[in-house]
Amino acid sequence: MGQRIADLPEDIKKLVIQRWDEYKASHDGNEYTSDTAIRQCVSNVFHWEGTPEGHEFWSRVNDGKYDTFYKRYPKHVEPVINDQYSII
To answer: pTM, whole model, 2 decimals?
Structure first.
């Protein structure tokens, strides 16, 4: 079945929604509204091969293999400050 958009990590969800917006802008008659799309699986809301990431990327995300996303889009990690003089 795949991953529901609503259940994805926030950064992945943002990209899925962006790709869905791009898809629906170029395809008249997309059946989903933003309220219904968020409840769908990634596989149901846009054609993967038409994205910069491609089919294999989205197939792995849809299977819950989020490492694929983070290899392409690394998380921005804030440094941990343990006192006023050093950064870990």
So the answer is: 0.71
